[in-house]
Design brief:
Elements lengths: L2 H6 L4 E8 L5 E4 L5 E2 L5 H14 L7 E3 L20 E3 H10 L3 H11 L1 H10 L23 E2 L1 H12 L6 H11 L24 E10 L2 E10 L3 E9 L3 H19 L4
Antiparallel strand pairs: 1-2, 1-9, 3-6, 4-5, 7-8, 8-9
Length: about 260
């Protein structure tokens, strides 16, 4: 069964773009469809932070102070901590990616500004990735939705994997943080019945997840012994708990397709 046929038979709708950077083989399915980004938008925000480190000599040890009005619900831990806490930009960036902390993200959005993140995306040639606003804002303005495409996200991951996002050092540092993401690895889940016990896994990954009530996404870089693969699977239109296993099925199918010549 093709990846497209599998996607068509699963609950919800899907957008996929994946590429084997060694062989050049791709898997594409509605890859240019613009979809609410959920927490995938945190990768462009991180990119702008590290652009400033590289080009404007931003010190990651500089601190931002979290006020009560900064604390928002959703993923993360800062919403439960005491207001007035000073946190380094380094730690906020790590929290934004590893545990997808929404409060940390909003502090960084206020620091960078929306326009700077979007300007970097245009500089990178990513015209369908747009940061519109802070996260968990109430009330939600429906025409101001953070958004991206599977193609754009995989292109970001390809630039990172090849050391071309701003610089080799920036790419390396961002990949290191993405490798610490604690969200479920859906773009390359282990095959059922083959747990890695007493040995090393056959692959490692650097990735970022995203989730809304009716959406689940995963985007990242997959490293195997012979291949480096970038993959993004975005889903919407069904409850997130139904979409998560479906994205995992697609992740296995995409990885199998891209490694079939190995």
């Amino acid at each position: 069964m093709t990846v497209a046929a599998l996607a068509a038979g699963l609950p919800g709708t899907y957008s996929i773009f994946a590429k084997n950077l060694v062989t050049g083989r791709t898997v594409q399915y509605r890859e240019h469809e613009t979809i609410p980004s959920a927490s995938l938008i945190k990768v462009p925000i991180m990119a702008e932070i590290f652009r400033r480190v590289e080009e404007e000599h931003l010190n990651l040890d500089d601190t931002l102070v979290m006020q009560k009005e900064d604390q928002v619900p959703g993923s993360g831990v800062l919403m439960d901590l005491t207001p007035g806490l000073a946190l380094s930009i380094r730690d906020l960036t790590m929290l934004m990616i590893t545990v997808s902390d929404n409060t940390a993200t909003n502090l960084l959005i206020d620091f960078t500004g929306v326009d700077a993140v979007n300007a970097l995306m245009r500089r990178l040639g990513l015209h369908h990735t747009v940061l519109e606003r802070r996260l968990e804002r109430v009330p939600v303005i429906r025409d101001q939705i953070n958004r991206t495409t599977a193609y754009d996200m995989s292109r970001i991951m390809e630039l990172l994997a090849t050391g071309q996002l701003i610089s080799v050092d920036v790419s390396r540092r961002m990949v290191d943080i993405l490798s610490r993401c604690q969200g479920p690895l859906s773009i390359a889940p282990p095959d059922p019945g083959t747990p890695f016990i007493g040995g090393l896994p056959a692959l490692k990954a650097a990735h970022k997840t995203g989730s809304l009530d009716m959406a689940r996404h995963d985007s990242g870089i997959i490293y195997t012994a012979r291949h480096t693969i970038v993959s993004t699977i975005m889903s919407q239109g069904a409850p997130a708990d139904r979409l998560l296993p479906a994205v995992g099925r697609l992740g296995r199918a995409v990885l199998k397709e891209l490694r079939r010549d190995s």
